[in-house]
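Worked Example 4.2. Consider the chain below.
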Amino acid sequence: MTTIAEAKRIVLDHFAALDNAAEAGLAEALARNTSPDCAFRFVHPFNEATGPEAAAALFWQPLRQSFAPLQRRQDIFMAGHNRVDDGETLWVVSMGHLLGLFRKPFLGLRPTGFGTMIRYVEFDRIEDGRIVESTLFVDMLNLFRQVGAECLPAATGPVMVTPGPRTHDGLLYGDQPPEEGRKTIDLFMGMIDRLVDADVHTTREDLALDWHEDMIWWGPGGIGAPYTFDGYLAQHTGPFEAGLEWGRHLGHRMQIAEGHFGGFYGWPSLEMRSRGGYMGLLPESREFKRMRVLDLYRREGDRIAENWNIIDELHFMAEHGIDLVARQKMLTGL
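Applying the procedure from the previous section yields the following structure tokens:
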């Protein structure tokens, strides 16, 4: 059985092979540590592929053709056994940015020639010494905003290059005390369980149960990064809850914690119905639509201090018949 330390070494070796591979060698680099039938998931419009060759052709080659050289800059690295399946599966999580020079068009975006920070979170499941499942979230609307995409309305909060933990201690290469991880996952999953059970309308009293008052929610590009209770209520939960009706919580693919850090993702995680006007784009919808979501957390004492969130917004828009990539290509002719 693969240990947590071994799983971390496998993923770090995987990153090194992928990051140092030439464009023509991406499939071979992906195959080094993944199974032949590894299930790869990417955000919309790339979505899913089976096996390293298909994943290289679908996502990594187009990305590397547009952004080169590409440099990985990790801020959080952790691993743990999945609470969703009572610890049967072992996962490694990496969060940070891919830094690249934007040289060629990508999804209708105009190349700037500038260094560009592509925000990502990756979840890798390890089995028998290999990666058998890999889900990569990229904050596409943060990228769109960063390079001046024409197709976007204003965000409700500030959109910026998203930093790692305030404490600069998110790279957990060594062993962590198990009891600290249990405190962390109990805290953020207790908060999530209350949200799922409630008719969601977030108040300061709700936040005070789980969060430090100077918390920051590092949200995706279409929303931004609200700071403190007041910012979070005004710039995220207010517009979010006004624009979307809560439907069903569909569960998570994985939930882990290690030390003071932890998180989860769902594929999809939620069903939401648009009331109209969400992010200045969505029409009212009669049906509930699926939302792919991830959250990572940093615990400080007995409260959440920081939360990194990415929503696959291009997918959620596509569920409503809005193709932002096609719209961007039409506006730019690329």
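The mean pLDDT is 95. Residues 178-197 form the longest helix (20 residues). Compare this with Example 4.1 before moving on.
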